[in-house]
TrEMBL record, chain A:
<dbReference type="InterPro" id="IPR027417">
    <property type="entry name" value="P-loop_NTPase"/>
</dbReference>
<dbReference type="InterPro" id="IPR032705">
    <property type="entry name" value="ORC4_C"/>
</dbReference>
<keyword id="KW-0238">DNA-binding</keyword>
<dbReference type="InterPro" id="IPR016527">
    <property type="entry name" value="ORC4"/>
</dbReference>
<dbReference type="InterPro" id="IPR041664">
    <property type="entry name" value="AAA_16"/>
</dbReference>
<feature type="region of interest" description="Disordered">
    <location>
        <begin position="1"/>
        <end position="106"/>
    </location>
</feature>
<feature type="compositionally biased region" description="Basic residues">
    <location>
        <begin position="1"/>
        <end position="21"/>
    </location>
</feature>
<dbReference type="Pfam" id="PF14629">
    <property type="entry name" value="ORC4_C"/>
</dbReference>
<protein>
    <submittedName>
        <fullName>Origin recognition complex subunit 4</fullName>
    </submittedName>
</protein>
From TrEMBL, chain B:
<dbReference type="Pfam" id="PF21639">
    <property type="entry name" value="ORC5_lid"/>
</dbReference>
<dbReference type="InterPro" id="IPR020796">
    <property type="entry name" value="ORC5"/>
</dbReference>
<feature type="compositionally biased region" description="Acidic residues">
    <location>
        <begin position="342"/>
        <end position="352"/>
    </location>
</feature>
<keyword id="KW-0235">DNA replication</keyword>
<dbReference type="InterPro" id="IPR047088">
    <property type="entry name" value="ORC5_C"/>
</dbReference>
<keyword id="KW-0539">Nucleus</keyword>
<feature type="domain" description="Origin recognition complex subunit 5 C-terminal">
    <location>
        <begin position="404"/>
        <end position="567"/>
    </location>
</feature>
<dbReference type="InterPro" id="IPR048866">
    <property type="entry name" value="ORC5_lid"/>
</dbReference>
<feature type="region of interest" description="Disordered">
    <location>
        <begin position="437"/>
        <end position="462"/>
    </location>
</feature>
């Protein structure tokens, strides 16, 4: 994992290469991209042609491709085949001809691109909009932070220092990634112990895991590094594994301190990463933190001891206040902050980084592939400068700056790519924004079956009548009365009564139970043995406005009149 | 591209660590199709976890590890869990989440070694809401499984509930990639049903002499049949599983007339003549569907609410020999009914075990008549839970009425009244004047409150279910009921009872009454709400869940005793 990443030391060209090597062409590529960032002096050719007309893809739901039909057909006739409301196709740009459907020999390219992009989406790198020359703008927090952390870790590994720090930052602001990158850059490979507050609920679990991880990493490198066995005897961790693990069970927590203080005697420097650091502060007496930080603080530079760094990662800003006094006094107090992107443009750039996968240079690039790469690039640029796309990005950015949300937004458009509609469209992005961003509470409410809708309407009426806690009996009564009154009218349409269809109590009860399983109805009180299931109290989780909209949309007149008219 | 196919291609191309599939209609079928789609892909190792089955963390960890490696613990092997083959010592992967992660690493190494390429693992979890209830501490790490284990593993939750309902607090879990499965359309449902229920049943046209309902000749008919079933059922349910279940239950009966006709023709034909089993004509199919339409409605009612299972239902509702004649419009050749919906294998009235422990005997002819009328159907199984369909409710209450002694039935009705009526209404309902005449008191109907009341609205008792009452009140109401309905005529009255009501007074103090209350409590038709060791105050009871609390059932029982329940309920609308 770690060896994959190489970050250039200077911030503006900060582009951790996804695939190990980086060649001159690749650099040129990135220069090109940096140039075309939408800085004020940006009105470049691309912006102009993309705002003029947007080639929306006519096929949101692509059909399976027929190889015979996909010969490099010109784009225009293909679009005319399907009627669509999208704007007319963009007049072919003078330089490139981009087919609407993909010729068969490029299908593999598309597949590999999809794969690469999806991979990118899971390891997003924030592209910072930052230029060293502009002095009035602060450098992005993450760049500064990563320098800090790198310095700190270098101190530990190269000079044997004891260091402790906290990485603070909101979710998905790159805390874990940063620390992993910094570790990967270190000249000497340290022992890394990764703990997580979500797993290690108490100190004993954490100790066991520390022992396990130390054992895994230390024992493998022990022989080449330290040939003399004398060291081993002193070190309680380097026992054979089952013994150590078995022994740890019986070690009282009081001995923790002694064990942890032995960590610096290991043959290599150690970095302890505490994910969800705030949860470790909830452990009784914070003894693990105390031991770790005390060991860090009392570390004296000497030949025999290696360095130890304790890095806590947390989103909780007041974590330092949760430390006990004795723990806090041993903590160095270094708090390094990470942040999410500050501008929309950084999002867009990040999206671009993710959407244009870097090809491996040692790979033989066939001509087709190069052609596809060019087409893909220009289409991505179009996609990113499309008004709708920008709007979706801006909206999302104003809600959350979580990069993972951006990745999730982009997944669905990528998945929807097929040889018949091989390019990203902003329509797809819009659709995916609906499902991935702020989700509608019950997206398919209007498609609910007739008994379910009846139950929902009955619950609305019951609530109107002042009964917020519903029982099935109550809903059943409402529905029964309604069905009776509606069918009492002697009017017939086309030989059929216009009344509501009868529902038997058994069917209704089953439907009700399904809705309870889906938590559309939520129990108010815990069910007890002595209460029959028709008398258990529930509350309807669907808001009445949603019920109203759903009933309007479902198009059943009977239900609509019932909802509007009242009982 | 369906949503499930998209999810599959996402996993195939590059597994997103955490995917949440929300399917409100049929999460089970969705899980199955997801698993089968994933299994057809190369080098993806799946495991299906049910949150109901894996109710502890240990079970969960073991099931995941064993499932990914397709390891089945065997009894001879001491039911050992999977452990990597090259190591003699069996490691334990179920101690903690750490151990589980180590186990996953080992599994990954093992699988990668087997297939010579890095393995992808997918953990599909259905009913994840149960994990939240049972082991909330596992849920958060589970959503971050890929990050924690640093492996190519993705976790898929399939649930009818929304992620917002399951999500652990404090934003601890990462947000999943959401997949919403739409409520299926008709085509999707039909495809789903035919693929999951019957596709494997169609047999090759083998030499079997007796054709069965799954003869390939019927395959086109089955498609028509499915759409016919769908048309009937889709108003009430969208769940392909339920529709398929009903269709599967009715199919053998549906084809039976055709098979009967074939058998008849075979009998009529000579021994060496070959009779072809062929598709019936369109008109015949129409007659067939018309004939079976009502029985499908019955099937919907009983099978959708799982009052019975498909096999039993099919056996009970199997069409008789005469159905073919009915469909063809011929006069019935045999007098058997086509739809034996009811079990009429009742015992004769004389054999009925008459009320054994009742302290009272049926007095008047009227009562005797009522009783014998109600006993035309007997079913001695005592149903403790009300069958809610209309016909079933009467049968269950009739069965109950027959299983219980007469006095116990009075107690049951009294208990229902005590549970449903407010105590303050008792005097009006059952009170008598000094002259011994029952005052004619009309039942109070609930009136609309004219002025708005402050505070919470009073919910009618019939919506809330039974409320507890003290034993004394039950006895008092029982006395009133007996006095009204079960007093011996003046010539039957023993000499020593002079004062009106004295006889009833004696009856309700009998040990048998208390014994029947205990009996009802044992049957959970009554529920004692006060703890048994409390000494002060009378014990409190209420009617138990099921039959005893259902107005329809109790009123049927009351009718058997000659009581009109509707008149005695305080606030009965309509």
């Amino acid at each position: 994992m770690g060896t994959k990443r190489k970050t250039a030391p200077t911030p503006p060209r900060h582009r951790p290469a996804k695939r190990v090597t980086r060649s001159t062409t690749d650099n040129g590529d990135s220069d090109d991209q940096l140039d075309c960032l939408p800085t004020p002096s940006r009105p470049t050719r691309r912006v102009q042609f993309s705002t003029s007309a947007l080639p929306l893809d006519p096929l949101p739901h692509p059909s399976p491709v027929k190889p015979s039909a996909v010969q490099k057909s010109p784009k225009k006739p293909n679009q005319l085949q399907t009627p669509s409301l999208s704007p007319p196709p963009r007049p072919a740009s003078p330089t490139k001809k981009i087919p609407g459907t993909l010729p068969p020999h490029l299908h593999d390219c598309l597949d590999s691109y999809k794969r690469a992009i999806l991979q990118n989406l899971q390891t997003p790198d924030i592209a910072h909009e930052y230029n060293e020359d502009e002095e009035d703008v602060d450098a992005p927090a993450n760049l500064l932070a990563s320098q800090h952390v790198a310095d700190l870790l270098r101190g530990t590994t190269e000079r044997g220092e004891g260091n402790s720090c906290l990485l603070l930052g909101p979710r998905s602001s790159g805390k874990t990634r940063m620390i992993e990158q910094c570790i990967a850059q270190l000249s000497q490979e340290p022992i890394v112990v990764r703990l997580s507050g979500w797993i290690h609920h108490n100190d004993r679990l954490a100790m066991r895991e520390i022992a396990y991880q130390l054992n895994q990493q230390a024992s493998s490198t022990l022989l080449p590094d330290v040939p003399d066995i004398a060291d081993e005897d002193e070190n309680p961790f380097i026992v054979s594994e089952p013994e150590a693990l078995a022994g740890l069970d019986s070690i009282p927590t009081a001995h923790l301190h002694a064990l942890i203080s032995c960590i610096p005697t290991l043959p290599r420097p150690t970095i302890v990463i505490l994910d969800a650091f705030d949860l470790f502060t909830l452990h009784p007496r914070q003894s693990l933190l105390y031991s770790l930080l005390d060991t860090v603080q009392s570390l004296r530079q000497g030949a025999e001891n290696k360095g130890l760094a304790v890095v806590g990662l947390t989103t909780r800003m007041d974590t330092i206040n949760m430390l006990e006094k004795r723990v806090k006094s041993r903590f160095s107090g270094r708090m390094i902050r990470t942040a999410t992107p500050r501008k929309v443009i950084e999002w867009v750039n990040t999206a671009r980084e993710m959407l244009i996968p870097r090809t491996q240079d040692d790979q033989m690039e066939v001509e087709d592939e190069l052609a596809f790469k060019e087409m893909w690039k220009s289409r991505v640029e179009e996609f990113l400068s499309d008004n709708k796309t920008i709007r979706v990005f801006e909206e999302t950015f104003s809600i959350t700056r979580d990069i993972r949300t951006l990745s999730r937004l982009l997944i669905q458009p990528i998945l929807a790519l097929t040889p018949t509609s091989p390019w990203l469209t902003s329509n797809q992005l819009e659709k995916s924004a609906v499902t991935q961003r702020i989700r509608p509470q019950y997206p398919y409410l209007h498609n609910f079956s007739y008994p379910s809708l009846c139950l929902l309407i009955a619950s609305v009426h019951a609530e109107n009548a002042g009964y917020p806690a519903l029982t099935f009996e109550m809903l059943y009564e409402y529905i029964r009365i309604r069905i009776r009154t509606s069918s009492s009218a002697p009017i017939q349409l086309n030989g059929r009564s216009i009344g509501m269809v009868k529902i038997s109590k058994g069917v209704l009860l089953s439907t009700f139970e399904n809705l309870v399983a889906a938590r559309v109805f939520v129990t108010v009180a815990a069910p007890s043995l002595t209460i029959g299931k028709e008398f258990v109290k529930y509350r309807c989780a669907v808001h009445r406005q949603d019920v109203k909209q759903a009933v309007e949309r479902c198009g059943q007149t009977n239900l609509r009149t019932w909802l509007n008219k009242g009982n | 591209m369906t949503t499930i196919a998209q999810a599959v291609s996402l996993i195939r191309l590059s597994p997103f660590p955490f995917i949440f599939i929300n399917d409100i209609t049929s999460p089970r079928l969705t899980t199955s199709s997801l698993i089968s789609d994933l299994d057809s892909q190369q080098n993806i190792h799946t495991v299906r976890i049910d949150g109901v089955v894996c109710f502890t963390a240990r079970l969960f960890f073991d099931t995941v590890i064993n499932g990914l490696t397709r390891w089945e613990p065997s009894w001879e092997d001491d039911c050992a869990n999977w452990s990597p083959g090259d190591q003699q010592t069996s490691k334990r992967y179920n101690d903690s989440f750490d151990a589980f992660l180590h186990g996953l690493k080992d599994v990954h190494d093992h699988l990668s070694k087997e297939s010579q390429q890095p393995a992808k693992m997918v953990v599909v979890i259905e009913n994840p809401e149960r994990l939240k209830e049972g082991m909330p501490e596992v849920l958060v790490p589970l959503t971050r499984l890929g990050e924690l284990s640093k492996l190519d593993i993705s976790v898929v939750f399939v649930s009818a509930q929304r992620w917002e309902d399951i999500k652990p607090p404090l934003g601890a879990a990462v947000d999943p990639y959401f997949v919403d499965v739409a409520i299926p359309s008709k085509e999707a449902i039909m495809k789903q049903i035919s693929s999951s229920f019957t596709d494997h049943l169609w047999q090759l046209p083998s030499s079997s002499s007796s054709p069965n309902p799954y003869h390939p000749v019927f395959q086109p008919l089955h498609a028509q049949y499915l759409s016919f079933v769908y048309d009937i059922c889709h108003t009430f349910t969208d769940n392909p599983f339920e529709i398929g279940y009903i269709a599967a239950a009715r199919w053998p009966g549906f084809v039976k007339p055709i098979l009967d006709g074939y058998n008849q023709r075979q009998e009529e034909a000579g021994p060496d003549e070959e009779v072809e089993l062929e598709m019936p004509s369109t008109e015949f199919i129409m007659r067939l569907t018309r004939h079976f339409k009502p029985s499908l409605n019955v099937a919907l009612e009983q099978l959708f609410s799982r009052h019975t299972n498909a096999a039993d239902w099919a056996a009970v509702n199997e069409p008789g020999e005469s159905v073919l004649d009915q469909i063809l419009g011929l006069p019935p050749s045999s007098p058997t009914k086509s739809q034996p919906n009811t079990d009429d294998e009742g015992m004769d009235e004389d054999d009925l075990p008459q009320i054994q422990s009742s302290p009272t005997r049926p007095r008047s002819e009227r009562i005797r008549n009522i009783q014998s009328q109600s006993q035309f159907q007997t079913d001695y199984a005592l149903p403790l839970f009300s069958f809610n369909t209309n016909n079933a409710s009467t049968t269950s209450s009739v069965a109950l009425a027959n299983a219980l002694p007469r006095m116990t039935r009075f107690v049951l009705v009294a208990a229902f009244l005590a549970s449903m009526n407010p105590a303050k209404s008792d005097l009006r309902m059952f009170g008598r004047g000094l002259d011994g005449k029952k005052r004619k008191r009309r039942v109070m109907r609930t009136k609309k409150q004219t002025k708005p009341t402050t505070g919470p609205v009073k919910i009618p008792q019939r919506y809330l279910g039974p409320s507890p009452f003290p034993l004394d009140r039950l006895i008092a109401i029982l006395g009133a009921l007996i006095e009204e309905n079960d007093v011996p005529d003046s010539e039957d009255m023993p000499e020593e009872f002079k004062i009106p009501g004295e006889y009833t007074d004696m009856e309700i103090r009998r040990v048998g009454v208390y014994a029947s209350i205990t009996q009802l409590t044992n049957l959970r038709l009554l529920v004692r709400t006060s703890p048994p060791d409390r000494l002060d105050g009378p014990p409190m009871y209420k009617t138990g869940p099921g039959v005893a609390s259902s107005y329809d059932d109790v009123s049927a029982i009351a009718k058997g005793l000659g009581i009109t329940l509707g008149d005695l309920i305080w606030e009965r609308e309509n």
